[in-house]
Design a protein that fits this description.
Distance between the termini: 50 Å
Number of domains: 4
Strand content: 15-25%
Family: Belongs to the peptidase M16 family.
Structural class: alpha+beta
Protein name: Peptidase M16-like protein
Helix content: 40-55%
Keywords: Hydrolase, Metalloprotease, Protease, Signal, Zinc
InterPro entries: Metalloenz_LuxS/M16, Pept_M16_N, Peptidase_M16, Peptidase_M16_C
Number of strands: 23
Organism: Novosphingobium nitrogenifigens DSM 19370
CATH topology of the largest domain: Cytochrome Bc1 Complex, Chain A, domain 1
Strand order of the largest sheet: 12-13-14-18-15-17-16
Number of helices: 31
Length: 955
């Protein structure tokens, strides 16, 4: 399986359907030859020698690798070849329920000890310790920091008990089923209904149509300890399991550990046969040239219109050969060409806001070509016709060689960057790559091999080959489609069939110019500047530079991450500089500003300019600054700096990106009413700042008043204001980068002064009764937040880090009450926010989703925990559960440049950030019970709480 980065991301709800449907660990059909690693049987893809493969006598397969990124960490993945497609009708949800029960009680871990045990070993629950169940597999994931020999041995011991010898008791099942039902409730809603309905249409006649891993209320409530054990014993077997380990340990040690703890695991009985997942079938009597099958209209008043279609072919196991991968590359190029044409149309005056095509092999159930279309307005039929016309053109006429070369240039950089940065590949990512390869029954290759295969394949990318692959991708056994719409009057199933089968004229005008545009062709930004001053900061070799025009920079050339450079540019005044009456343009700027381009170059020109390069135009808005950011490489650094500087020197004002952003924002707004957590995501940012409109999501009425002219008025002034800081950390040459800075940012003219800061956020005043918001989703779901005001400003940075520890102690207690004891909430969250750039606005907050009837229990639990923490210090055990994971988290992060840049950006104007960094590990991982109690007494007062609850409209 040669990994291929997708240039165009999938959009629409089909992507959600696939996320939980494409995982399946492989099972060897025959014993591999001794000299061929089991993953590579039937493949001529060169084996990556850094992976060590083996099979234990009991049939358990393993693959291990030494990797030191980050130092001291070992990543373990245990793959059980069992998912929701293995269940009978009466067992629906069992595979996922077992995932939960595995953490509850096992041979070496009793009564919910798993989470606290790994927390004290430094692993954070939910990120370092997790599991997931899909239709075809269950994967247990552990990233163990500070993997000392004793910790590693203890970890394999505990995992062996969880996987091979879990203990299923009536009490455990009765405790965990309500938690799974709470998880089910959190996933329910309009989007979940659409995913389920779409799956039912696309995979009609196959088990996948009705096999969501979450199960059903009826089957879960009927589960018993014995019925769950029977399911576990059938599928959890050593010959049905793969263990992947990648990390900072010798491979012989890793093999010895998994052999020690998993080697005596014995299977019971004969291995059961794999279930039959079926295959897509065309309707009897359908036209073989146009085999349209099931279609459906799904009415969801709170969701925008989306048209999804799938051209389906039977899934079959492939031999993952070089020739197979070359074919995949041509497929990817064919789809990339169509996606580029669709995106170019969407940027103009198209009938659709967005559209994309993709190909995916789904859950061993189908090989699918997927089409997703978001119409610009009510007229979905025209949008479908226009997208089909673009596809028809690709099916009729081969692409030009120039078009192919443009895509190949993109492919080249996508394959070459991993070669340049392979020394920085994290062990967890490498382990996940193996999991995916086992899942889809294909192989892995190191970046050098992938790139070599690509380069040797270049003669195969002919216009005729691309045309043939395009036609193959859009040919299948059956085509099915769904329309998601807020109005039942928009159409019916027959209308969809007509839309799919009506003749369309090939849109030959959709082809995008393939001529190249080079940075060498662009004008200079002005007279280059000079270095006015340069001093070493005294920390890690970081240099502070000031250019002759006042631009400042932090530079840290280092070889910690070969081939990678991170660039951050800070300028202007952020939200504080935006007039509240212009608040609508804050969100629009976040979406559309960079797509407007610069000088005479629009978005399409920028794409041409970036062809074959690793360049970014990312933009964000902070409390007191705006920011550009990029992750680039040495060969592209100079041009990346030019892009950012040119955006400030001569911004372009194209109305099309603004109009597209307005349309997208209007379409997305209604969906924010579809579930309680969506309402909170929409409203909390401004409510927590006492209603500051700059942090609000604009509603359709406000968006209707916004114009491209207003957008320019606001952002043209904002881009001219305030000082500029450029921070560059990574693998670069200092002198060459100084010269590039002088040519780019050093050539910018004088900046307008910033207006006085007008941002003083604060939590609303205490309310005895919660503020009530409403949602239009499931009547059995609600959400709630309780918050206490804290503080803000850099002067309180040390206290802010201690508050983070307090929030984790609070979360552990809330988790125990709301999830473990009463099963009311699946994942309650507690966090502390302390803005460092403004002197106020901090808060300590607990949030959860739950049933309306459990709201009182949540508020009571939160208030009791706050009171208890104020009345008595937490135990030493509670302290250990939060300090050790934080210590390990910071230690791991500090091995990469991103951590230091996150902490120090802005330090050229605010030198205090440097000494503040030196105390972060101590502040964040060392505390005392008394210090935690003192913070609780200082901030968690019952008469300062602010509460909000989100109820169903009809509750």
């Amino acid at each position: 399986m040669v990994s291929f980065p997708r240039r165009i991301a999938r959009i629409g709800l089909v992507a959600s359907l696939l996320v939980g449907s494409v995982l399946s660990p492989g099972v060897a059909s025959a014993a591999p030859a001794a000299h061929v690693p089991w993953l590579y049987v039937g493949s001529d893809v060169p084996h990556d020698p850094q992976w060590v493969f083996g099979v234990l006598p009991n049939g358990l397969r393993y693959v291990v690798r030494h990797n030191g990124v980050p130092p001291g960490q070992v990543s373990i993945r245990i793959i059980a070849d069992v998912g929701s497609l293995y269940e009978t009708e009466a067992q629906r949800g069992y595979a996922h329920l077992i995932e939960h029960l595995t953490f509850r009680d096992s041979k070496y871990l009793k009564g919910g000890e798993a989470i606290p045990t790994w927390q004290k070993l430094g692993a954070t629950f939910g990120s370092d310790t997790n599991a997931e169940t899909s239709p075809t597999q269950t994967v247990y994931k552990l990233d163990l920091p500070n993997a000392t020999p004793p910790a590693l041995d203890e970890t394999f011991k505990l995992l062996s008990g969880m996987i091979a010898a879990p203990i299923f008791t009536p009490q455990g099942v009765n405790t965990e089923v309500p938690i799974v039902l709470a998880e089910m409730r959190e996933r329910e809603g309009a989007e979940s209904r659409v995913v389920d309905a779409t799956r039912g249409v696309f995979f009609k006649g196959q088990p996948l149509a009705a096999r969501s891993p979450i199960g059903t209320v009826a089957t879960l409530q009927a589960a018993t300890a014995q019925s769950v054990k029977d399911f576990h014993d059938k599928w959890y077997r050593p010959d049905n399991t793969v263990i992947v380990v990648s990390g900072d340990a010798d491979t012989s040690v890793l093999v010895a550990e998994l052999t020690k703890w998993f080697g005596d695991w014995k299977a019971v009985g004969k291995k059961p046969p794999q279930p039959d997942f079926g295959a897509p079938v065309a309707p009897v009597g359908s036209d073989p040239k146009n085999p349209v099958g099931e279609t459906a209209v799904i009415v969801e008043p709170d969701l925008p219109r989306v048209f999804n279609a799938a051209i389906l072919r039977p899934w079959h196991k492939v031999n993952d050969t070089i020739v197979y991968n070359q074919g995949n590359m041509i497929d990817r190029l064919a789809l990339s060409l169509i996606n580029r044409r669709l995106e170019a149309r969407a940027r103009g005056n198209a009938s659709f806001l967005a559209a994309s095509v993709d190909e995916n092999r789904i859950s061993r159930s189908a090989d699918a070509t997927l089409i997703t279309i978001t119409p610009l307005g009510d007229d979905w039929k025209t949008a479908v016709r226009d997208v089909r016309a673009v596809i028809a053109d690709a099916l009729k006429t081969p692409p030009s060689r120039e078009e192919i070369q443009r895509e190949l240039a993109e492919f080249d950089v996508s394959y070459k960057v991993p070669v340049e940065t392979q020394e920085t590949q994290a062990g967890s990512k490498l382990a996940d790559d193996i999991v995916e390869a086992v899942d889809i029954r294909e192989t892995v290759a190191n970046p050098d091999t992938v790139y070599a295969i690509f380069r040797k394949s270049l003669p195969l990318f002919t216009p005729e080959a691309v045309l043939a692959h395009t036609r193959s991708l859009f040919t299948g056994t059956v085509e099915r489609a769904v329309l998601v719409t807020p109005k039942a009057s928009d159409g019916n199933a027959q209308d969809l069939r007509v839309a799919l089968t009506s003749p369309v004229d090939a849109a030959s005008g959709s082809r995008v110019a393939a001529t190249t545009l080079k940075f060498a062709d662009l004008p200079a930004l002005g007279t280059p500047g000079k270095v006015a001053s340069s001093v070493m900061t005294g920390l890690l070799g970081i240099e502070r530079v000031e250019l002759s025009n006042g631009v400042r920079a932090l530079l840290w050339p280092n070889d910690a991450e070969p081939g990678r450079i991170i660039v951050r540019v800070r300028f202007g005044g952020g939200y504080a500089a935006i007039d509240p009456k212009d608040a609508v343009y804050a969100q629009l700027g976040d979406i559309a500003l960079m797509d407007c381009g610069f000088g005479t170059l629009g978005r399409e020109d920028l794409d041409r300019l970036a062809t074959g390069r690793k360049l970014s135009l990312d933009f964000d808005i902070g409390d007191t600054t705006f920011g550009f950011s990029a992750d680039t490489r040495p060969a592209d650094l100079d041009d990346q700096l030019y892009l950012f500087a040119a955006k400030l020197a001569s911004p372009r004002w194209d109305e099309h990106p603004v109009l597209r952003a307005l349309a997208a924002s209007k379409l997305q707004y209604e969906s924010t009413n579809s579930a309680p957590m969506k309402v909170l995501q929409r409203d909390l940012p401004w409510l927590l700042r006492d209603g500051d409109p700059r942090f609000a999501t604009p509603n359709p009425a406000e968006l209707s008043k916004a114009t491209p002219e207003g957008f320019r008025r606001v952002w043209e002034a904002l881009l001219r204001q305030g000082p500029i800081e450029v921070d560059i950390f990574g693998d670069f040459n200092r002198d060459k980068t100084i010269a590039a800075l002088n040519r780019t940012f050093g050539a910018l003219g004088a900046r307008d002064p910033l207006s006085p800061m007008k941002l003083a956020p604060h939590l609303p005043a205490h309310n005895a009764e919660p503020l009530v918001l409403t949602h239009r989703g499931d009547a059995n779901t609600a959400a709630a937040v309780v918050a206490w005001p804290t503080g803000g400003g850099r002067v309180g940075v040390h206290e802010s880090r201690q508050l983070e520890l307090l929030s984790q102690i609070f979360q552990n207690r809330l988790f125990d009450v709301m999830r473990e004891k009463i099963g009311a909430s699946y994942a309650p969250q507690v966090n502390s926010a302390w803005p460092l750039d403004v002197p106020s606005g901090g808060y300590f907050a607990a949030m959860t989703q739950l049933r309306p009837g459990d709201l009182a229990a949540f508020f009571a639990a939160a208030e009791k925990i706050a009171a208890d923490l104020s009345d008595a210090p937490p135990s030493a055990d509670e302290i250990a559960r939060v300090t050790e994971p934080m210590k390990q988290w910071i230690t791991r992060l500090s091995t990469g440049n991103g951590f230091y840049l996150d902490q120090l950006q802005g330090g050229a104007f605010e030198p205090r950030k440097f000494p503040d960094l030196t105390s972060i590990l101590r502040d964040s991982s060392q505390t005392t019970p008394e210090a935690m109690q003192a913070l609780a007494r200082r901030y968690l007062h019952p008469d300062t709480t602010w509460k909000v609850e989100v109820l169903p409209e009809k509750h």
